[in-house]
Amino acid sequence: MAAAWALTLLAFAGVGAGLLLGHTWRLSHHLAAIGGGVLCGIALFWVIPEIAESFGWIGSASLAIGACCALAALDWLLSHSEHSPRNGIAGPLLAATAIHSFLDGWSVRAFAIQPVADVAVPIGLALHKIPEGLALGWIARRSFLKVGKAVAAAAAVEAFTLAGAVIEPRANRSGVAAFGEGWSAAVLAVIAGSFLFLGVHALAPARKRAGVVGLFVITLLAVGGIALLRR
Ligand SMILES: [Zn+2]
């Protein structure tokens, strides 16, 4: 639970900076690229191979890619569902970020019992939480007339990180009781998919900036190397 608190506080710091600065830092793209590389590496070299042990490679890869596409579609739908960009752009975007934060908290708790990943997952998630908070704070500031409302909305969205972390152990116990081993594999697939989506999401908008793709690839390969050494 400590990691979930740390993630939420980092996001709050990002939100505060985003509200104050009014624009995102250049450095935040590089942080996001490293975080995205860690998360994609964990998904590709740790989580998918683990699901492959019970579902086979084709099954586990399609589960993860399916979850990634579903999240991408949801994100696209929520962020494109308003007609007027000036009024109420915040609503759907806040909803998408709340769902995403919930998964952040869920993942950090789910990996807390896995060796190595119990360190790598919080680091990967922490590196994307600051840019995420920055962007959220910046958008909330532009979408709400009152600063107080912007702070409340952005903080409420990031608090879903804690909700995910609180619910994970309970939901996991009842899920395993009801569905057996298939439950764990399905949850891991959704997490792998969300990590892949996060990685691509971190990389895509900033890919033309100097060093961003390089940092992503180096981090991805480093995580892959560590995973191979441990096998
Ligand atoms: Zn996040």
**Structural class label:** mainly alpha
Reported for the largest beta sheet, the result is: none
User: In total, how many domains does the architecture comprise?
Assistant: 1
How many distinct helices?
7
Q: For the residues shown, what is the average pLDDT?
A: 84
Task: Spell the H/E element sequence.
Answer: HHHHHHH
Percent strand equals under 5%
- Could you name the ranges where pLDDT drops below 50 across 5 or more consecutive residues? 83-87
Specify Rg, calculated over alpha carbons: 17 Å
Measured distance between first and last alpha carbons: 28 Å
Quantity of strands, as a count? 0
Q: Rough shape? A: globular
What percentage of residues falls in helices of 4 or more residues? over 70%
Question: Could you say which small molecules are bound to this protein?
Answer: zinc ion
Question: What does this protein look like?
Answer:
The two termini are 28 Å apart. The protein has one domain (2-229). Mean pLDDT is 84; it is low at 83-87. With 231 residues, the protein is mainly alpha-helical. α2 packs across α4 (117-143), α3 (90-110) runs antiparallel to α4 (117-143) and α5 packs antiparallel against α6 (181-203). The chain has seven helices and no strands. The longest helix is centred in the N-terminal third of the chain and has 53 residues, at 27-79. It is 84% helix and 0% strand. Bound molecules: zinc ion.
A few lines on this structure:
With 231 residues, the protein is mostly helical. It is built from 7 helices and no strands. It starts with a helix and ends with a helix.
